[in-house]
Design brief:
The chain is an all-alpha fold. The chain has a single domain, classed as Sodium/glucose cotransporter. It contains 18 helices and two strands. Strands 1-2 form a two-stranded antiparallel ribbon. The termini are far apart.
Length: about 500
């Protein structure tokens, strides 16, 4: 492995840890500082932090891998995500920022739901915290799988620590660096590193497809199109071979945005409601560029591999293979850093949200109600480590697929929290019983759907993505139960301020 790669990677690791140390003083002051950065994020930091924590390793591994195999038909996932993210910024962001302050200055989503629906405060807080920790363990594991794949593909045979495989070493190093700056610097460090990581990811996703297309051996757009047509004409079709169910399963990824705690918690941390539109414009511009780059990387990477006789055993590693093949070692190291940035930005956000729920919604609620801010900050740091270690155990299987793990966790959150958040913010008749029913029905539907294998095959046909039945069932449960039960003085005008 060339020294230039190591120089770039060590520089990246050092920068992330330095940001964590810089943020340590602010993060240690109060629980609000550690868990929400004191609600003082600027629009640009909030926007790129939301985007980077959203677009995990799947953006540089999972989505390009799907494009490599299936062509433009897989791009509907990105389109659905873009539309869902835009609506999320319009509907959820301003209301959640205002109402989490209004309802008891809630620091976590479970605390907000408990404050919004006081008649079911304890069960809502408990169930939602369990859902967060459960699905985030799987979601965080997907990021560690991506880290393991990077080291397994890019650094094969270099590491030899006590018989550990390159994949296992990748998990250890990825988790170790994330824990270093997350434990020390809390939400502020996570958000600041997300901003830097988001910039790195966007540059990489502009650079890589451009070089693949127009660099040596690329042949340009026309040649790439010709090559793909010769391999399989359906690769350039948006609809060929795509059923209605398949299309719905792709575009409905966008429904998940409304219930992703690690994303919507950024809305809670923006300085003021008035700055939400600025953050939205920055975030959506970043997302559009990044998604187009990932889509281009996957499909044009397929053309490049065919033209140059490359063997690609795992399509999800096409970014890693091309980074090593096409660039100077210093740039290759930067591109590896971009992949690690995508992975780490999401892992750190997920660990912090899980930690906040364990601290605020379990420890402070059941074990130490009188716990002070300093104690809660320290407990939160311990919880970050614990959740990270659990995720590492889940990620220990090297055959795990990044996109598969992400899709399961994404559907779980979207179905459990999405309808509750939307209706809780916008429909004043929503009550505690309805919210609790929606949480349980949404999460249970997703888990049952996955366990029955209906996301792979349904009624003899293609599988249905579990977020569709989960989101619909949760939405209906909230409506029916809220209308069928007394509001118990929870009938309040929910205003967009």
């Amino acid at each position: 492995m060339a020294i230039g790669v190591w120089i770039s990677l060590f520089a990246y690791f050092a920068l992330m840890i330095a940001i964590g140390v810089y943020a340590m003083r602010e993060a240690s002051a109060t629980a609000e500082d550690y868990m929400l950065g004191g609600r003082g994020l600027s629009p640009k930091v909030a926007a790129l932090s939301a985007g980077a924590s959203d677009m995990s390793g799947w953006l540089l591994l999972g989505l390009p891998g799907a494009m490599y195999v299936s062509g433009l038909a897989s791009a509907w996932i990105g389109i659905g995500l873009f539309v869902g993210a835009f609506i999320n910024w319009i509907i959820v962001a301003p209301r959640l920022r205002a109402q989490t302050v209004h309802y008891g200055n809630a620091l976590t989503i479970p605390a907000f739901l408990a404050n919004r629906f006081p008649t079911q405060a304890l069960p809502l807080r408990t169930v939602s915290a369990i859902v967060i920790v459960l699905f985030f363990a799987v979601y965080t594991a997907s990021g560690l799988v991506a880290g393991g794949k990077l080291f397994e593909s890019a650094f094969a045979g270099i590491f030899n620590f006590g018989g550990l495989s390159d994949y296992a070493v990748g998990i250890v190093i990825t988790l170790g660096v994330v824990l270093a700056y997350t434990v020390v610097g809390g939400f502020l460090a996570v958000s600041m590193t997300d901003f830097v990581q988001g910039c790195i990811m966007m540059v990489a996703l502009v650079l890589m497809p451009a070089v693949v297309l127009f660099g040596e051996g690329g042949g340009g757009f026309a040649q790439a199109t010709q090559t793909l047509n010769e391999v399989d004409p359906t690769l350039l079709s948006w609809t060929e071979g795509l059923t209605i169910i398949g299309w719905l399963s792709a575009v409905t990824w966008g429904l998940g945005y409304f219930g992703q705690p690690h994303i919507i918690v950024r809305f809670m941390a923006i300085r003021t409601v008035k700055e939400v539109p600025v953050a939205r414009n920055i975030g959506m511009s970043w997302m559009a560029i990044s998604l187009i780059g990932a889509i281009g990387l996957g499909i044009f990477g397929r053309a490049y591999a065919v033209r140059n006789g490359m063997q690609v055993d795992d399509p999800e590693t096409i970014f890693i293979i091309l980074a090593d093949l096409l660039f100077h070692p210093l740039i290759t190291g930067f591109l590896y850093a971009a992949l690690l940035a995508a992975i780490m930005s999401t892992i750190s956000s997920q660990l912090l949200v899980s930690s906040a729920s364990l601290t605020e919604d379990f420890y402070r609620l059941f074990l130490r109600k009188e716990a002070g801010d300093r104690e809660c900050v320290n407990v939160g740091r311990v919880c970050v480590i614990v959740v990270g270690l659990v995720a590492a155990v889940i990620a220990s299987d090297p055959d795990s697929q990044v996109l598969g793990l992400v899709s399961n966790a994404w559907a779980g959150f979207g179905s459990a929290f999405g309808p509750v958040i939307i209706l809780g913010l916008m429909w004043s008749r929503t009550n505690g019983a309805g919210a609790l029913a929606g949480l349980i029905v949404g999460a249970a539907t997703v888990m049952i759907w996955i366990s029955l294998g209906w996301n792979g095959e349904f009624m003899g046909g293609p599988g249905v993505y579990e977020i569709i039945p989960g989101f619909v069932a949760s939405f209906i449960a909230i409506l029916v139960v809220s209308l069928a039960t007394s509001d118990a003085n929870e009938y309040q005008a929910v205003e967009h301020s």
